[in-house]
Design a protein that fits this description.
Blueprint (H helix, E strand, L loop, with lengths): L4 E8 L3 E8 L2 E8 L10 E3 L3 H14 L14 E8 L4 E7 L6 H10 L20
Antiparallel strand pairs: 1-2, 1-5, 2-3, 3-4, 5-6
Helix pairs in contact: 1-2
């Protein structure tokens, strides 16, 4: 039950940009500082199992997400762009400071798919001290 499209990007203002996208059946993971360019040839991939994809699909459906813009216009947090498509199910939004119900749970589910040897806690929860 692999998705047909998977694109998730977080941009932390004055921080990092995290990009997770489906590429040749695997999730390509990128973490860069704002303004830093990706160096090709050093790609990092996570490969969720078919069971991981199935569990993700079921868990996300159970969240009953309703992405909506926050009522406050604070521009100092982060921005999320998400486009995930399974055969008939679609999650798509682009929101600055997403604060909608179950966003944190959704983000945790996204992160769980990115656990690999390079990011043992997942890309989104990578310990910044490991970068030094």
């Amino acid at each position: 039950m692999k998705p047909t499209k998977f694109f998730y990007e977080e941009i932390e203002y004055f921080g990092y940009t995290y990009l997770i996208k489906l590429f040749k059946g695997k999730l390509k993971l990128q973490k860069t500082s704002v303004g830093e360019h990706i160096v090709s040839g050093f790609d990092i991939f996570a490969e969720p199992s078919p069971q991981n994809w199935k569990d993700f699909f079921i868990a996300v459906n159970n969240l009953n997400l309703n992405p909506d813009e926050p009522t406050e216009e604070v521009l100092d947090g982060f921005q999320v762009e998400c486009h995930i498509a399974f055969e008939k199910n679609l999650i798509k939004f682009e929101i600055i400071n997403p604060m909608f119900k179950n966003f944190e749970n959704f983000r945790n589910l996204i992160n769980s798919l990115t656990v690999c040897s390079e990011y043992p806690h997942g890309l989104l929860f990578d310990d910044d001290e490991d970068d030094e």
